[in-house]
Design a protein that fits this description.
Blueprint lengths: L11 H11 L18 H10 L14 E5 L12 E5 H8 L3 H11 L12
Antiparallel strand pairs: 1-2
Length: 120
């Protein structure tokens, strides 16, 4: 299901960037360095090695830093509710909420919820 951009504040890209910059472009869950938008792979490798990490370049998605809403509510931009997480940690964080989020997105896009199996 696609992200519902309308549920996020207009300044969301700026808020997310400020959080990622404050985290030093490092996942706040696993501490793995992630690639900055302007950073080359060679620069990321140097920064990662300096921080004591090796790189698994065959898994580039692992180095994407995202911004997660801890409570799953995109309208709650309280800094205590936000975390800079690599894509793997973000997916792990969202897993328990995935079914409910999927249904909310379907309803948002116009699908009516199933209420029961009444035939008549």
């Amino acid at each position: 299901m696609p992200i519902i951009r309308e549920r996020y504040s207009d300044d969301w890209p700026q808020r997310a960037r400020v959080l990622k910059d404050a985290a030093g472009w490092t996942c706040q869950q696993c501490d793995r360095p992630c690639r900055r938008p302007e950073e080359s792979w060679a620069e990321l490798e140097q920064r990662a090695i300096a921080l004591g990490w090796g790189l698994e370049l065959h898994r580039p998605g692992r180095f994407v830093l995202t911004t997660a809403h801890i409570d799953q509510n995109p309208a709650n931009n309280d800094p205590a509710n936000l975390a800079a997480l690599c894509s793997s940690c973000h997916l792990r964080h969202d897993t328990p909420h995935r079914t409910g989020n999927r249904q909310r997105k379907r309803e948002y896009f116009g699908q009516l919820p199933l209420l029961g199996n009444d035939d008549g």
